[in-house]
User: Which sequence fits this backbone?
């Protein structure tokens, strides 16, 4: 059985750790647009249920690069990835605990 990105939204909170161990090989479950980290609800769930730390995964749009997520459990997260507008830049998007965007910045890649 293959895990689909939307499956993470169907997992009950108490089953999260079990799901992470059996579902995917990495913590982000990110496979492109429309995925867990692309919705406020998904980001909120990721922020609340994953421990404080840094998570990374290959970027499906730029295979030689990673998407980085800096999570502070229950407080907020920053998603850092190659800019879709200018690949010479990294885009850093900050979110609060509810998954709503609070800021955006750019830096050289």
Assistant:
């Amino acid at each position: 059985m293959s895990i689909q990105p939307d499956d993470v939204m169907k997992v009950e909170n108490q089953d999260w750790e079990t799901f992470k161990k059996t579902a995917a090989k990495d913590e982000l479950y990110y496979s492109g647009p429309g995925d867990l980290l692309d919705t406020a609800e998904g980001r909120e769930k990721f922020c609340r249920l994953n421990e404080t730390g840094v998570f990374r995964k290959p970027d499906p749009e730029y295979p030689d690069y990673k998407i980085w997520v800096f999570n502070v459990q229950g407080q907020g997260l920053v998603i850092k990835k190659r800019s879709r507008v200018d690949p010479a830049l990294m885009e850093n998007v900050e979110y609060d605990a509810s998954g709503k965007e609070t800021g955006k910045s750019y830096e050289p890649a």
The chain is about 15% helix and 35% strand. The helical segments are 16-22, 40-49. The mean pLDDT is 81.
